[in-house]
Amino acid sequence: ETLGRPLSYTREVHLTNGTLAFRQVGTPLDWRARVTQIDFSKRNRLIRSKIGLDVETQGRKASLMLDARAQTDLRTAEVQAEIRDLIPSQIFPSAGSLKGLSHFRAAINGRGNLKYAARTGIESAFLDISAGKGSYDFGKSAQDFDALSLKADYVPKTRTVRFTTFRLDSRYIDTDLSGRVFMTPEDPKRDRKMAVHFDFAGPRVTGQLADDFPAQTLTEVHFKGTFTPDLRQLDIESGKALLVDAPLTTKGRLYTDDKG
Question: Which of 16, 40, 126, 253 has the most CB within a 10 Å radius?
Answer without folding.
Answer: 40
